[in-house]
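Quick one: structure for this chain?
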Amino acid sequence: MRIITLVVIYLLFNTNSLAQHELEMFFSSNQQLESKVDSIYWQLSNKEKVAQMIMPAVGKHGKPVSEVIDLIKQRKVGGILLLNGAKAEFSQLVATLDSIGELYGNLPFLYSADAEPSLIRYKIKGCASVPKANEHQSEIEVIKTAKSISSDLVDIGINYNFAPVVDQGNMNAAITNRSFGSNVDSISLWSNAFIQVSQQMGVIATAKHFPGHGLVHGDTHEKLVYIDGLLQEVVNYESLISGGVLSIMVGHIAVKNNPKYGTNGLPATCSKKIVTNLLKEELKFKGLIVTDAMNMGGVRNVTDCGMRAVDAGCDILLMPIDENKEIQTILAKYESSESFQCRVEESVKKIIRVKICLGIL
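Got it. Here's what it folds into:
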């Protein structure tokens, strides 16, 4: 009965005029859209609500497809990252996972990729060749690259791109050529061009890695790194937020020697000061907030890191080490704390809303 109800909802909304919404509708005040979001939200069980926030990875550097399929059958997935593979392989995988998802009563998935200009040649083989981010010489070149990447992603069925990198490049070994450079003006201008083109083509763009990975020492893949003092790279996000970027990725970056934004040894992903106070309240960002991969060295040793990231204000947990454990931990707090219930509700409704605006729900 549960599966039948969700399938009926799926068919109902796909025949409704809201299925034609474009991504630009996400930030609009639209009572009909809000009513649709509420209707879907309240049809989900508590477990299914929490599951919308979970995004495992499949592919060469992700989890085995069989494990992700098991999660789909239990309705414990809201999105899937396609991580290192080939274009044809991923196209077939999206079709397969969609069929299984629908069969088992899931809401349609967000499919994501690290399709940065500098990484797409490695992350998704078979896509059109584009210059590395730091090789671009003009906004026109950036627009051409964004069109090429987005076209390949749409062909595959990917609707969520973890790009562009808006960190200041050339200083940090983990960023280097992944950034549009070190000039703040060109980073903002070119990142905004990449974002606008992507979202006009139906692909959510993501500015990363908030609050800034370019001017720190160390690599968050390996360990927690620190911003010492001022948050110099936050300025890179201001024009992108006002320009309508739909998603921002928070990095596993701690802040020290900063009385207002110090994170007390926690990564930004688990800090309410950074995610809620700074990003959501001061910068007024209303879009999707996704964590960097939760299996990275900068966060994986934090106790209950997934639940703490949600509590801090994050909407999507990317690549949790143990999806079942994360859901169980978050669900336990959801069912015991009214304020945490509201926190989860805000995130899940944003995820449902963007799925409607993408036209997949």
